[in-house]
Amino acid sequence: MAHQVLVPIDGSPQAQEALEYAMRELPHAAFTVLTVLNPAEMSAGGTEMGMASYADQWMEIEKERADERFDQARALADEYGVTLDAETVLGPTARGIVDYAEDHDIDQIVMGSHGRDGVSRILLGSVAETVVRRSPCPVTVVR
After folding, report:
1. What is the pLDDT of residues 130-140, one digit of tens each?
2. To 5 degrees, how large is the angle CA 6–CA 9–CA 13?
3. pTM above 0.85?
């Protein structure tokens, strides 16, 4: 069985760099790109239409963004000649990454050093740091 590599992607330049690094350095691996949709990051808006309706709208927009990221990742995989699966999970970001790695026998995680900017990163802490501490497998953090 091929070396299974998980690359979380969130649309940030750091995640893109991590994906490129992984494909360049591990050309014989099988890759899974993962996007974690975290409802806690939903901005407080759209109260006129009700929270349930707003949550549905948020989810639809985030799934479309994830599909765009997956299309870009597939194009990159074609360039490198590697296999790639794309998955989306719902929940807290770091926990989603670690749980996916545990549940799918991932051999290595390659991720960007950070994907958030500003206040939310300070308040929520570093996803990469949490993944490094809790991961069941080696984690390579790309800067």
Report:
1. 999 999 999 99
2. 125
3. yes
Is residue 127 a contact partner of residue 94, using CB atoms and an 8 Å limit?
A: yes
Q: What value does the CA radius of gyration of the chain take, rounded to a whole number of Å? A: 15
The vertex-115 CA angle with 43 and 62, nearest 5°, equals 45
Half-sphere exposure in the Cβ direction for 26 (13 Å, CA): 22
CB atoms within 10 A of CB 117: 9
Taking only the tens place, the pLDDT of each residue in 49-104 is 556 778 889 999 999 999 999 999 999 999 999 999 999 999 999 999 999 999 99
Structure-token match 């997956």, residue found: 70
Top pLDDT among 45 and 37 is at 37
d(CA 87, CA 79): 20
Give the domain ranges of the chain: 4-142
CATH class, 4-142 region? alpha beta
Q: Which two tokens stand for residue 143?
A: 């800067």
* Residue 67 near residue 16, CB atoms below 8 Å: no
